[in-house]
Amino acid sequence: KMQNYLLSNSVGPEELPTLKELSTSEICKVWSGASRYIHRQFLQKRVMEIGVGTFALVPVHASVEEGKVLPVERPVFTMSKPLRTFYNLESDETKIPDETPIVHLDFEEIAADTHFCREIVEQCIHETLLCLAGALRDNKEVEFSFK
Question: Whole-prediction pTM value?
């Protein structure tokens, strides 16, 4: 599915039929459901692959007080290597432990959680990621926040 997001042309409205039909609030609801799903995977020590990259918990050391560090896990998003190469992006290489299981979004489960049908959830996420890829292609600044 990765090649879907390596765009040689800008994304036109005809490629985003679902986003055109949904309100901003509905799109946010779908992504909130995806965000909750990703959080549940974190709790089970899994890495989430979402087509353009991966979400993972990585071990870091937080300084808590003078000379004391606390090992904690921090959520990070790493854009996939083909995407970084294709769009000529720089990013830190985050090392994810090899034994960490990688899972993909479960559109059924997100649909049940958000009360949208599975196809709407899948298309909404796919088309949003297409928009993200289009913004990268056109060298636009992008802000994408998750709760």
Answer: 0.86
